[in-house]
Amino acid sequence: MPSKTKKVGAAGRYGVRYGRTLKLRVVKIEKDQKKKYTCPTCMKQSLKRLSSGIWACNKCGTKMAGKAYRPGNI
Which domains does the chain have, with CATH numbers? Predict the structure, then answer.
């Protein structure tokens, strides 16, 4: 049986509900929030999201406020 998530990826968990466009938006947001970003302090690719608007570097331990799904002006 083929996978149900070929076109919408991880948002396939919503099944036939909500429409394709909204599911694609969810996929983009989830990719952005789970991605690692460059830390402005130590310049390493290790800045991760702790919770909504809170970002922390795994290498140098810096915590900073940013946007909900992406760090501020990075």
Answer: 10-65 (2.20.25.30)
